[in-house]
Amino acid sequence: MVGGGAFNAFTDGGQTEDRTAAMLNLEYRFGKKIAYLGFAVGGLVTSDSGSFVYVGNYADIRYKNYIATPMLSVGAYRKGAGPDLGGTLEFRSSITLAYEFEDGSRIGLRVAHVSNASIHDDNPGENEVLITCSFRF
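-> C-alpha cells emitted (137 positions)
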C-alpha cells in the first residue's frame, strides 16, 4: 500500500511543531490471515523530517467491492521538526475505506491516530488523512 496525505491534520497550527505536514506512507500487508487477522509492517515519513515505523494487525471487512480495513499498530516515532508526541514508543489506530477493482488493486481513504496511550507524561497525539493505493503481487 502506498498512501499520501496530511500528518498532524486538524491542528490549529499556532506553533511551528503544531502545523500540518505532508506525509508518505508505505505498508506491506501479508496475505495469509489467522482467524481473520493479518499482519502488516509499514513506515511513514513527513515533510518535517519525522518518521514512524510500525508493525500491526489488520482485518478486511468486505461488502461487494467495498472494503473497510481497521488496523492497530505499535511502533517507533522520530519527531524531526514535527510534533513531540511524548516519546518514541507510540500506538497507531487506523481505518481505510477502499474500493477494490477486478485485479485486486484498491483505492481508498485512510484516517489514523497516533498516540502513546498515556505511557509517557505528555500524550498530545496526532491525526492523519491519506489517499491510499494498494496493489497485489
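Residues 98 and 118 are 31 Å apart (CA to CA).
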